[in-house]
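tool=predict chain=A
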Amino acid sequence: MRLCAIHFLALAAWAADTNWPQFRGPSASGVGTGSPPIEWNAESGKNILWKTAIPGLGHSSPIIWGDRVFLTSAVPATGEASLKVGLYGDVTPVKGEPAQSFRIYCLDRGSGKILWERTAASGPPKIMRHPKSTHANPTPATDGKHLVAFFGSEGLYSYDLSGTLRWKKDFGVLDSGFYTAPNAQWGFASSPVIFENRVVIQADVQKNSFLAALEAGSGKELWRAPRNDVPTWGTPTVMPYTARGAEGWQVVVNGWKHIGGYDLKTGRELWKLQGGGDIPVPTPVFLDGLAVITSAHGQGRPIIAIRADAAGDLTKDRSAIAWVQERAGNYMQTPLLHGGLGYFCFDNGVLTVYRLATGERLYQQRLAGAVSGFSSSPVAAGGRLYITNEEGHSYVLALGPEYKLLAENELGETVMATPAISGDVLYIRGGRHLFAIGATPARSEARPHEGRPPNGL
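tool=predict ok
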């Protein structure tokens, strides 16, 4: 498992630079290296370093490279976009929305000031969205040279970190809707990933689904693997691959008809598995030689731990599957793996922790007073787990095999996006602002600094 050791050394070096380059940070782990505060309050300003108003509506997470923060938004030409949060089952999309500006924002990490913004595309959305969704769901990604932002049917765009457009790609209409109700368009959500000069995208849609890798510098398509699956919303993850004496990198994707691993260089299918929930949302995660896949909708609700040496059809030969919890999977949230444990939070706020090596359940606990829905995925740093519900109420828990609630905090805004961590600062996107949460002097009950947009915005 030499490659696994190299993987974690590279991951540690990457994270040590305090960069958070994609959805859920390095390797989609959700784990930062600093120690953000356990208490904050947006109304009083306690431990709020700054907050910056972000126009429009977006569920994309912030990403961080060096002294810059990037995120996307869809800004309507008229009025304000509506958002319906909570636990409900309405599948009807939002109809009759105005034209949108699909934007990328760059902020100063220290002050929250907007340094630049770019409009990647504008016009009427090509696909409708779910009432709980937006037209800017995918989180951007960067490797320090390239910044890519994916707006689904509106295209994939690559910039340098100064905001100069390098290339763009139009993949046509990407309809991620309910496969049993084709008119229920819900919006695209899978985020791009950059790894070894490749931009990897997953487009599981109503017709002609695919996984593809593009050259980061030029946008040239290096390979495309057709996928026979229903629409999914998870982000692909690059993980080590060690089967049959070979070592390399694989792209692991969630699915219903086709969970799978693909060779990063060629797109060749390495292994596949069928089954689970029929609306797959969580992103695959990896730790200690195990890829963990989960989903929860319809008749399937599994957690599946798959070894890095998997090969072939795992639906027929399950020898590479380390363990399965058949009725314990997540619907919306990507789980978090840390210290040999797996943390899984349901939509209703029930947190379950498993021993990663065996699948043994260590505890299950409803978060105190949890009545709202939970869509944002948990993140961790400094020995603590941060979980935020859709109403902006955050729970801070001690990492470990026993339930220990350390603090509860209010942001005062809807939170659907997964936070980012850079050093000792937690960045949370609310419905109206991006917040930087970090330790401030005791007298800091004063209002936080509010980042100002550049002239003309």
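Residues 2-451 form a domain with the Methylamine Dehydrogenase; Chain H fold (CATH 2.130.10.10). The mean pLDDT is 93.
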